């Protein structure tokens, strides 16, 4: 699952953040006593030399190549997420996907009678339930809880059972000609969509993507969905279900993010490697 991959990446980053706060030995200020003994020519040679920068670039490129190889192997060995997404799309051909490489936003669109339905989510807009930075640092420095140890495996299993699958903020826009639109703010979590708010938007000439991202502090957003009459909540749920906003769709959103995030991460690694090479 994506939450496990995110946690695995967070741990080494948390450790490296501690290292990055220390000034590398090569760049520490030279003490005055030592500096006085260094000739002017040596100082000039040091300031104009590119050898150190090249060395770091080569090290970075080598590390990036290693990371790309590891992540590519993981992508090839874990195709479950893509399989689930493709199965959903084959069973629901009314949906089309707009997904540009290098972009974080994903759009699903379909028609329903005279309506245009647009579903938007962002691959970076989710909650994983992973450890916070302080907990991650503590775990990294706890020698009694090394990954792979019996204690670590038992504790991870217990915590993993308690942690919910990561949740994703999802926006749904229902547009009708000359009627404006309804914007639903949802959360996809544990295979279901939870409605947060329902906004009524006036007729507009801007695109669906702009309407979905547009935030207005002056527009009345209605009460929190949970405060509505229970029967009204049920009918709104059924209204969205009829338009394809189903539990099956809710379960596919995390899978889609899982696959796309991995592809974007690989592409990002490759772009950085290309730059430093």
**Quick one: CATH superfamily of the domain at 80-129 and 164-269?**
Mitochondrial glycoprotein
- Which strand order spans the largest sheet, edge to edge or round the barrel? 1-2-3-4-5-6
Total E-strand runs: 6
Query: From the helix content, strand content and strand pairing, which structural class follows?
Result: alpha+beta
CATH architecture heading of the domain at 80-129 and 164-269:
Roll
Mean pLDDT: 76
N-to-C series of helices and strands:
HHHHHEEEHHEEEHHH
The stretches of 5 or more residues where confidence is low (pLDDT under 50) are 13-47, 146-164
Largest sheet: 6 strands, antiparallel
Number of helices: 10
What is the end-to-end distance? 32 Å
CA radius of gyration is 25 Å
CATH topology of the domain at 80-129 and 164-269: Mitochondrial Matrix Protein, Chain A
Proportion of beta-strand residues = 15-25%
**CATH class term of the domain at 80-129 and 164-269:** Alpha Beta
Helicity level: 40-55%
Describe what this molecule looks like in 3D:
- This protein is of the alpha+beta class and 277 residues long.
- It has a domain at 80-129 and 164-269: Mitochondrial Matrix Protein, Chain A.
- The chain is built from 10 helices and 6 strands; from the N terminus they run αααααβββααβββααα.
- It has helices at residues 2-20, 32-35, 40-48, 51-77, 80-91, 133-140, 150-162, 208-213, 230-242, 247-276, and strands spanning 96-98, 105-112, 115-127, 167-176, 180-189, 192-201.
- The chain has a 6-stranded antiparallel beta sheet.
- Helix 1 crosses helix 6 and helix 5 crosses helix 10.
- The radius of gyration is 25 Å and the shape is elongated.
- Residues 13-47 and 146-164 have low confidence and may be disordered.
């Amino acid at each position: 699952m994506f939450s496990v991959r995110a946690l695995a990446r967070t741990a080494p980053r948390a450790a490296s953040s501690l290292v990055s706060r220390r000034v590398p030995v090569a760049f520490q200020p030279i003490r005055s006593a030592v500096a006085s003994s260094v000739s002017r020519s040596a100082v000039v040679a040091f300031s104009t030399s590119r050898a150190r920068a090249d060395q770091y670039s080569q090290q970075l490129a080598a590390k990036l190549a290693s990371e790309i190889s590891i992540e590519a192997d993981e992508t090839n060995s874990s195709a479950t997420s893509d399989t689930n997404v493709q199965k959903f799309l084959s069973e629901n051909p009314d949906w089309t996907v707009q997904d540009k490489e290098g972009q974080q936003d994903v759009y699903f669109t379909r028609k329903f009678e005279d309506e245009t339905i647009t579903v938007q989510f962002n691959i970076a807009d989710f909650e994983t339930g992973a450890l916070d930075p302080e907990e991650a640092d503590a775990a990294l420095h706890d020698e009694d809880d090394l990954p792979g140890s019996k204690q670590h495996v038992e504790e991870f299993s217990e915590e993993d059972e308690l942690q919910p699958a990561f949740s994703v903020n999802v926006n749904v826009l229902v547009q009708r000609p000359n009627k404006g639109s309804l914007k639903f703010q949802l959360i996809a979590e544990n295979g279901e969509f939870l409605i947060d708010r329902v906004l009524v938007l006036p007729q507009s000439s801007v695109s669906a993507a702009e309407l979905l991202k547009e935030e207005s502090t002056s527009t009345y957003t209605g009460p929190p969905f949970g405060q509505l009459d229970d029967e009204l909540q049920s009918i709104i749920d059924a209204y969205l279900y009829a338009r394809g906003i189903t539990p099956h769709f809710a379960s596919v959103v995390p899978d889609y993010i899982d696959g796309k995030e991995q592809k974007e991460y690989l592409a990002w690694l490759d772009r950085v490697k290309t730059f430093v090479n």
